[in-house]
Specification:
The chain is mainly alpha-helical. Helix content is 78%, strand content 0%. It has seven helices and no strands. Helix 5 (98-133) runs antiparallel to helix 6. It is extended and about 75 Å long.
Length: 179
């Protein structure tokens, strides 16, 4: 029946999503387990001079205090177990729990997504109607080109252009980036 097919499809998609998340988290966890990133965590906390002044024994003791010298697989399994309990861990950079940081970022993303939706749906409908009213005209081709161009740009490039326009040029928004 249709409903059982839909349930099977949803279950398969959910399983795929969980598998993809597991593989990506494992790869990212592995990348950040490298000695290079452990040194960067130490530099972020202790500073370049502080890390340079540490003996190898002191550095290993620092890794032990941070739990960074525990074997990769043990730390990953512990992290996944804590994640399943709702404990997102501690931010090495901020020195605070990750959960509230994540919640704050998700809230900001939600606000941004709301305004994008509020602005883009009416604009898209209006431009679509305008282009459709005069199919093949210069207006239609211009709007089609603008649509393809703007959707082809990477988000980071769009963010930089919009920051320059709205924060630096028009000064409508605060510019908080280091650039």
């Amino acid at each position: 029946s249709t409903s059982s097919n839909m349930i099977k499809l949803l279950a398969r998609r959910l399983a795929q999503m969980v598998l993809i998340m597991a593989v990506i988290s494992l790869v990212i966890f592995f990348i950040f387990d490298s000695d290079k990133f452990k040194k960067q965590i130490a530099v972020a906390e202790l500073g370049n001079f502080g890390v340079a002044a540490l003996s190898e024994t002191d550095y290993q003791a620092w890794l032990t205090r941070k739990g960074l010298n525990v074997p990769f697989h043990e730390r990953y399994v512990s992290w996944v177990g804590n994640l399943a309990k709702g404990d997102f861990g501690q931010s090495y950079e901020k020195g605070t729990p990750v959960g509230p940081l994540l919640l704050e970022r998700l809230w900001n993303t939600g606000i941004l997504a709301f305004w994008v939706f509020v602005l883009m749906v009416p604009l898209s409908l209006a431009f679509g109607i305008l282009a459709g009213m005069r199919e093949g005209s210069k207006l239609d081709r211009s709007l089609s080109f603008a649509a393809v161009f703007t959707t082809s740009l990477p988000e980071i490039a769009t963010a930089i252009v919009l920051t320059v326009i709205f924060a630096l040029g028009l000064k409508w928004l605060p510019a908080k980036a280091a650039m």
